[in-house]
């Protein structure tokens, strides 16, 4: 611009040259100056165009910059919102982890391994509520539970071992009882049949006829059964033993006793006034049968009936010759008979 203004001041000189007042050198210098002027004018125009282009580009860049700033502000706002949201989510995660640790005593890794994601949320909430109620019902955690469990477990093992031993012993005892029951049933049945066989013969001998037999009241349960005595005396139709007289009942009992002794002989038998209820005829019949039986069994008979005493081999009596002094006296009937005969 300065050079342009300088050339513009030379306009007077140019007019002078046109009027022919200057020399050739000046014309040459003027032409040179004009050329430079044109070049500068063209350069200025080009610069102006370039400047306009720069201005347009600058405006475009500023517009883009404003758009970028606007987008940056939006991104900053979104970043701030996401930061706040992240902080809130991190707080929720921390609270959830603390709750998982405090309420359920689980780590995140263990819970993730045990998690099932395909579940019904409502049903899960109900189940959690039920489990919480069950946990509350359990009460406080007993810190000594492990030691108590060990003690109870050891005691249980000990008692269970004893229980098994008792069950085995019980099984062995029950087996032995069953075996003994079988033996008892067998022996009892065999003995019962022998006694029943002898009972009828003894009864007929003592009663002078009739019929008698023994029977089970419960044949299906030999060990618990009772025994019925079925009697038919000669000349009588009585079958119920409760209708007999006392003497007849005693004679029936003696018949049963002698039947047992015949089926199962014993070396000695003590009878205490068993014939007290019998009449004289039955006493004599009983004494004679007892004497016939004495070849296999020794009898000690406590009696006051003369009929029984007559059949004994040896008598023992108690006498009181002096007051307060009791003395036993024994007499052999055979010796007494011989002595009586010699005295006669």
Helix content: 55-70%
How many helices in DSSP terms?
Answer: 10
Q: Largest sheet, if any?
A: 2 strands, antiparallel
Task: Please give the number of β-strands.
Answer: 6
Low-confidence stretches: none
**Gyration radius from CA atoms, angstroms:** 72 Å
> If strands are numbered along the chain, what order do they take across the biggest sheet?
1-2
- CA(first)-CA(last) distance: 209 Å
Broad shape: rod-shaped
The string of secondary-structure elements, in order, is HHHHHHEEHEHEHEEH
Mean pLDDT, to the nearest integer, reads 84
Content-based structural category: mainly alpha
β-strand percent reads 5-15%
Structure described in brief:
The protein is rod-shaped.
Which tags fit this structure?
single chain; 344 residues; mainly alpha; two-stranded antiparallel sheet; two-stranded parallel sheet; 10 helices; rod-shaped
Describe this protein's structure.
With 344 residues, the chain is mainly alpha-helical. The chain is built from 10 helices and 6 strands, in the order H-H-H-H-H-H-E-E-H-E-H-E-H-E-E-H. The longest helix has 81 residues, at 24-104. It is rod-shaped. 7% of the residues are buried.
């Amino acid at each position: 611009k300065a050079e342009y203004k300088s050339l513009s001041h030379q306009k007077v000189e140019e007019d002078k040259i046109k009027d022919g007042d200057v020399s050739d050198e000046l014309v040459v210098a003027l032409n040179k100056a004009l050329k430079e002027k044109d070049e500068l004018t063209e350069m200025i125009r080009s610069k102006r165009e370039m400047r306009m282009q720069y201005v347009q580009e600058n405006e475009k860049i500023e517009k883009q910059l404003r758009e970028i700033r606007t987008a940056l502000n939006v991104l900053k706002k979104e970043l701030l919102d996401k930061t706040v949201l992240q902080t809130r989510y991190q707080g929720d995660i921390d609270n959830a982890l603390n709750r998982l640790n405090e309420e359920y005593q689980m780590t995140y890794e263990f819970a993730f391994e045990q998690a099932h994601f395909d579940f019904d949320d409502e049903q899960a909430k109900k189940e959690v509520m039920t489990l919480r109620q069950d946990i509350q019902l359990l009460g406080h955690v007993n810190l000594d539970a492990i030691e108590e469990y060990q003690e109870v477990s050891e005691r249980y093992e000990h008692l269970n071992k004893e229980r098994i031993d008792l069950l085995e012993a019980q099984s062995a005892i029950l087996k032995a009882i069953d075996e003994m029951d079988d033996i008892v049933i067998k022996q009892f049945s065999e003995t019962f049949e022998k006694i029943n066989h002898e009972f009828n013969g003894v009864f007929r001998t003592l009663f002078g006829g009739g019929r008698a037999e023994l029977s089970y009241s419960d044949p299906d349960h030999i060990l618990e059964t009772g025994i019925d005595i079925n009697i038919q005396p000669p000349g009588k139709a009585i079958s119920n033993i409760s209708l007999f007289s006392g003497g007849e009942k005693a004679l029936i009992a003696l018949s049963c006793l002698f039947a047992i002794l015949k089926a199962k002989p014993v070396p000695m038998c003590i009878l205490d006034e068993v014939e007290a209820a019998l009449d004289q005829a039955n006493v004599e019949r009983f004494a004679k049968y007892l004497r016939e039986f004495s070849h296999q069994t020794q009898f000690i008979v406590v009696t006051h009936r003369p009929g029984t005493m007559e059949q004994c081999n040896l008598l023992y009596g108690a006498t009181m010759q002096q007051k307060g002094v009791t003395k036993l006296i024994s007499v052999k009937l055979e010796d007494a008979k011989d002595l009586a005969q010699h005295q006669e």
